[in-house]
Amino acid sequence: GKYTYQSPTFMAVRTIAFTDNVAAPWNAPAGVLRGLAPANVVRADIKLRKTDRNTLYQGRVNPIDTQIQTGVLIWGQKTMQFAQSSLDRINVRRLLLQLRRLIAAASQTLVFEENDQTLRNQFLAKVKPMVDQLNLVYNVAVDIDKVSRAYIEMV
Description:
Helices cover about 50% and strands about 5% of the residues.
C-alpha cells in the first residue's frame, strides 16, 4: 500500500474525541491509554529522542512520537498558555469548559434575578449536586464556593 502523511491536528482531534468516548473530558488525551494513534498510522515523520520530546514539551508543543513497544502516540497535554499552572493542561481546561456548560445550563432561570443570598442559595441548590457528582465519581476537586462566587459575579 501507499503511505500518506496526515496532519498532526488530525491525530490531536481524534485523540480528544477518543478520550471523550472512553473516559471523560478531564482525562488527559495523551499517553499510551488515550493518546495512541490508530493501527493504520505506522510512524511519526520525525524520530524524536527523549531530549527532543522534553524540548518540545517545554516549548508547549505536545510531541507525537513513535515508540517501539506502543506505536505512535501523543506524549503531552500542554496548552499554549505561558504561565505555569494547572490551567496549562488540556484536561484541566476541558474540565473547566464542561463545568461552565453545566453551570450555564443550570443557571438559565436565575438570570435577571436580584443578586442576593436567595439567588446564591438557588444557584448552589442547582449546581452543587452536579459538582458533588464530579467530585464523587471522578475524584475531581472543585470548590463550589469559589465557583459560585465567580459565576454570580459574571452574571
